[in-house]
Design goal:
798 residues, Aldehyde Oxidoreductase, domain 4, 3 domains, 20 helices, 29 strands
């Protein structure tokens, strides 16, 4: 992007992280070997729901190399339940206590001298189960007399709430047209190259270190300590490079907590790394699994006026993260449209499945698909082109900052400019003509268009909306950075949250630092604080890190420059306000020959205290904690949820596909993605987010699904059955950018980390509909596989 006023912001810089990864020098969790380290493996439940009558570990303890075997009863006696943002009646331990609640739940852990011995020990454990009735359908789970997943809770409905914004009843009564539909979003999850892993390491002072490739431990470390019954100052979490996350390692607690528990029990370091089956069947984070009934109210001219959403959400067996994914949805529930009246009903239900957690989009991507499905149906009902119905309802540039019915603020945007650029890049008129020619030849080309939001930078106040009186009414979600200049004038940057999982944190932070000081970003040395030495930081998630770490770096830079200016002014016999930083030198304004290099000033700051201004301490280091720049609390009646996700990105995707109606297979003819993430820091890395997110969106739309049978057996527990898109299935994405800077953030940056997954399911659904319109096809459930497509065609022909 072109920003003449900036030297680095907006430029395509190579990632500063890449050299160590490309040369194989990065250290991942399984690369770490500590003296005397043991290894763990877990026994998983073969039942979807069963009482644990007895566990016989005697044969396992006789396996050569096995040190100990621990069970859920050991956890219950020696630790507290794991972190939990749901009801306390839905308690969870890293190993099942009393009964198993889903197929694959960990029942026992074997600790041995090697992973091989640990796996052999797992095979030798004998468990007597009493099978219990299984419920995997959330509607059956809500019925009276349904098998209870947690008897202590007394119901499988763990949260039920309806929000009303505006006068919904009157809006629908006065509507000229109401389109209705039932929609189904299938369960999938992030599939990083590297699974979740951790090493627990007891320390001589009675404390514990945990090496972890999970995220956000600076923020949630004290909850891990609480679970392990440790004082928080006795636990240190050490960040490790992660081979991807996509939400699957977001505050992942079971693996690090289990590794820490096993280390404390044995008094030796213990490594536990999920195998792929662990990750798929027993992770912290399956994605959303939802059923919707939706209504969209419109006037005859296409003006959208009201939206009703009724969602049943299948959370699986636990509710670790509460229902926060619906807060993400409510932050952008009306999309880019001027819809004034909204009703949103949620029923969160427990079933005998692995728990639901975070996946790229964290629920906002589901709402995008739901809303865009309804907009497409409305366009077809009204006989309007899909882009024209959207254009008619867009929030206009002069209306920003714009308050949506839920109370959240959209900071800025120019949605029509994004749509126009996408249409131009896609050459939409050409493909509309080509579509007509293809139809005459008996070929089926479909064109999908979707326009949707990408909220960024959550505020902790989001969690308030689900409680009348939150038990822990947190309002902080900051990010911190520390900058120091050594005596030779070289820069060091310390980041204070676990962010080493592929989202280019070092590249972004060093580009901002370089912009502040006019230095080469590749010459900055970046380190990460462990939890014992970290300043308040929340870490990645919710497309927040670029915005927040930029604010932290700018804040620390201002503090450091202030000190440099005062030193330079003292040495140059000028006033601090009369000096400036230009190309790595601090000089007197209007007299550039009177200057000092940063290296010269650093030497003075470190070695010549008597040359410093009176009262100034030696050294050059500054830290800054950057709090969320714009957030407010919800109203007491929850008619206004406050500002909790205000930095609103936007995008338009256009997909052109050709479908074979006999096989249900498709091929891409064109795919365009235009995004507005505010000021773009690095187009290269943002394009990576868009490409990766869109690829995962294709998986959600067309391939990936966790399927449980009526006995709770996970039928898609390997990549033989759980299909993920490869390079052969992914098109070449043509990516464009529009920039509407945020008025609230440093440099006007917005988040873009969830990328294309926010739109790809919607645009693929629309393209399939369009290709098969003559058969009356409408995609109402994901994933839509070739078998689904051929069935819908046959039904249309019939």
């Amino acid at each position: 992007m072109s920003h003449p006023e900036w030297k680095f912001i907006g430029k395509n810089l190579k990632r500063v992280e890449d050299p160590r990864f490309l040369r194989g020098k990065a250290r991942y969790i399984d690369d770490i070997k500590l003296p005397g380290m043991l290894h763990a493996a877990v026994l998983r439940s073969p039942y979807g729901h069963a009482r644990i009558k007895s566990i016989d570990i005697s044969r396992a303890l006789q396996v050569p190399g096995v040190i100990t075997v621990l069970t859920g009863e050991d956890c219950k006696q020696r630790m507290n339940p794991c972190m939990n943002f749901g009801p306390t009646t839905v308690a969870q331990y890293p190993l099942a206590v009393d009964k198993v609640r889903y197929w694959g739940e960990a029942v026992a852990a074997v600790v041995a001298e090697s992973r091989y011995a640990a796996e052999d020990g797992v095979e030798a454990i004998e468990v007597e189960y009493e099978p219990l009735p299984v419920v995997v359908d959330p509607f059956l789970a809500m019925e009276p007399g349904a098998p209870l997943v947690h008897e202590a809770h007394g119901s499988n409905i763990v949260h039920e709430q309806t929000f009303e914004f505006g006068d919904v009843s009157q809006c629908f009564a006065e509507a000229d047209i109401v389109v209705r539909d039932k929609l189904r979003w299938g369960r999938s999850s992030g599939m990083p190259l590297e699974t979740t892993g951790a090493i627990g390491n007891p320390t001589p002072n009675g404390g514990l270190e945990i090496y972890a490739n999970s995220m956000n431990f600076t923020y949630f470390m004290w909850l891990i300590a609480s679970a392990l019954k440790l004082p928080s100052n006795k636990l240190t979490v050490i960040p490790v490079n992660a081979g991807g996350s996509f939400g699957s390692k977001f505050t992942a607690h079971k693996v690090p907590t289990l590794a820490g528990f096993l280390a404390l029990a044995t008094g030796r370091p213990v490594k536990y790394v999920e195998d792929r089956l662990d990750h798929m069947a027993n992770s912290d984070h399956h994605g959303s699994d939802r059923y919707y009934e939706v209504e969209l109210a419109l006037k005859k001219d296409g003006t959208m006026t009201g939206l009703r959403i009724d969602c049943v959400d299948d959370y699986g067996a636990y509710l670790q993260f509460g229902v926060g994914t619906h807060g993400n949805a409510l932050s952008q529930v009306v999309g880019p449209y001027r819809i004034k009246h909204v009703s949103y009903r949620l029923r969160a239900v427990l079933t005998n499945k692995c728990q639901q957690g975070a996946y790229r989009g964290f629920g906002a991507e589901v709402n995008n698909w739901v809303l865009e499905r309804m907009v497409d149906k409305a366009a077809r009902t009204l006989g309007m082109l899909p882009e024209e119905l959207r254009r008619r309802n867009f929030i206009q540039p002069h209306e920003f900052p714009y308050k949506i019915p839920t109370g959240n603020i959209y900071d800025s945007g120019n949605y029509e400019a994004v749509l126009n650029k996408a249409i131009e890049l896609a050459d939409l008129p050409y493909w509309r003509e080509e579509q007509k020619r293809a139809r005459a030849e008996g070929r089926y080309i479909g064109i999908g268009i979707t326009t949707a939001q990408e909220r960024s930078v959550f505020s902790s106040t989001e969690f308030w909306m689900w409680f009348d009186k939150p038990a822990f009414p947190v309002t902080s979600s900051p990010e911190s950075a520390t900058i120091s200049i050594d005596p030779a004038g070289n820069f060091h940057l310390k980041l204070h949250s676990q962010a080493m999982w592929g989202n280019s944190p070092e590249t972004v932070a060093t580009m901002v630092l370089a912009e502040q000081f006019g230095i080469d970003p590749h010459q900055v040395n970046v380190t990460y604080a462990d939890s014992a030495h970290a300043l308040p930081s929340t870490g990645p998630g919710g497309s927040r890190f670029t915005v927040m770490v930029s604010g932290a770096v700018v804040g620390a830079s201002k503090m450091l420059k202030d000190k440099l200016f005062r030193i330079a002014a003292h040495l140059l016999e000028a006033r601090p306000e009369d000096v400036e930083l230009v190309d790595g030198r601090v000089q007197v304004k209007g007299a550039p020959q009177r200057s000092k290099t940063l290296a010269e000033l650093a030497a003075v700051a470190h070695f010549f205290a008597l040359s410093l201004p009176p009262g100034m301490e030696s050294g050059l280091e500054a830290s800054h904690t950057y709090d969320h720049p714009y957030t407010t609390l919800p109203s007491d009646d929850r008619k206004d949820l406050g500002v909790f996700y205000p930095f609103m990105g936007h995008a338009c995707h256009i997909a052109v596909i050709e479908l074979d109606v006999k096989t249900g297979q498709h091929k891409f003819l064109k795919y365009v993605a235009v995004h507005d993430a505010g000021t773009v820091v690095n187009p290269r890395t943002l394009a990576g987010h868009v490409t990766g997110g869109a690829t995962q969106g294709l998986g959600t739309a067309l391939y990936e699904e966790y399927v449980y049978d009526e006995n709770g057996q996970l039928k898609t527990s390997t990549f033989m059955d759980y299909l993920i898109p490869t390079a052969m299935e992914v098109p070449e994405f043509e990516i464009g950018h529009v920039e509407t800077p945020s008025p609230f953030t440093e440099y006007g940056i917005k988040g873009g980390g969830e990328g294309g997954r926010m739109l790809t399911p919607a645009v693929m659904s629309a393209a399939i509909d369009d290709a098969l319109a003559q058969f009356g096809v409408r995609v109402t459930a994901l994933p839509v596989t070739p078998a689904h497509i051929t069935r819908m065609v046959r039904e249309g022909q019939g």
